Amino acid sequence: MIARPLLPDRRTLIAGGAGLALAGCDRVIQYPAARDILFKGEDMHRALQRALTDRDALVPEFAPAQMSPIFRTNGTRDPGTPDYAALRAGRFADWRLAVDGLVARPLSLSLADLGRFAQRAQITRHDCVEGWSAIGKWQGPRLGDVLKAAGLRDAARYVVFRCADLYGGAPYYESIDLIDAFHPQTILAWAMNDRFLDVGHGAPCRLRVERHLGYKHAKYLMRITAVPTLAGIGKGRGGYWEDNVDYDWYAGI
After folding, report:
1. Which domains does the chain have, with CATH numbers?
2. pLDDT at site 25
3. Whose CA is closest to 206, among 197, 187, 193, 219?
4. What is the value of pTM for the model shown?
């Protein structure tokens, strides 16, 4: 067994070194010193993780009795746009998730369509970059099954997620590689704690990529695009926070 490098994790740094009570992931951008503490010096840590850990390994799953009584929201709490408000008013009956890019069969999926895939339910821990964690139950189809249905092309290397919430007037975006996309615990969750997702937690559908910190779990999904490279996606680092606040693209835990 290889010992894990003795490096502080983000939660320890926030709680002890930074000492900041942050209300949301977007608050980190206001504190450059805290941002430096959180992310500088982690390149070696992440490189070691990728080299020494099995990225196919499952994260721990928990019993129902271990679920958190309160599960905070992270990031956007309501997209607040007219388009999203209209979808919400119609209980998301008109919502569609586009799956496109390097696929043989582009898809346009309703909530009912997502429900026709084999479903996975999992009780896992969400670790937020703010320093808090919570355990909740998520349900939805495996992302890998959806990508297989679309016929992923050989040139695809990453999948990019675009969302209904806007940052700087443009849709929020994130990305993962195919190792994480086909991980069995990476799902498109439409249910949380045995109920349809509420708005604060990403209704009608969000990504759960359980091997990563919370900011990778894109909410309010609208489009999934298979691409050969992250060049041309935002500023080229693969996600909004990666491009604008120097977050790590690989946020594995």
Report:
1. 56-245 (3.90.420.10)
2. 54
3. 219
4. 0.82
